[in-house]
User: What shape does this take?
Amino acid sequence: MRSCILRYFNAAGADPEGRIGEWHSPETHAIPIAMDAAMGRRPYFQVLGTDYETRDGSCVRDFVHVLDLADAHTRAIEHLLNGGTSQALNLGTGHGTTVKELLETVRNVVGRNFDVRYGPRREGDSPALVADNDLARRTIGWSPRHDLRSIIDTAWNWHSNYLPA
Assistant: This one.
């Protein structure tokens, strides 16, 4: 039996038409927490660690839009149906964003400021996690089409209009 293992990095964003978005209870993902802070649903966003060896001291993560992930699933199925071999593929943009850069993008997209507080590193957090998606590009012809601004825009649309109160 052949398969494609699709390894997501930081899946984020929402359906642009607002049919589905990201919500967890309790919430642990950076973008929904930032949305909550921007909407006043939580008092602040806490940056965990500012002393990493990164460009601004905060962790670097690779955020990939859920629509790009859906596209990768379709391409992986087509690859297998066309006789392709089993693969394990990294699905990310290949570009890292620091937590501080993420928060600045959220502020720019939503047009609101919110309180940010700084705390110590979380034990075990890696300074940087960024996908090498070259094998996904070569194997299934996949490359992400949505940037961080698109991720934040669709997440904001869903969180501000469709998230249960």
Q: What stands out?
A: The chain has a mean pLDDT of 95. The longest strand covers residues 4-8.
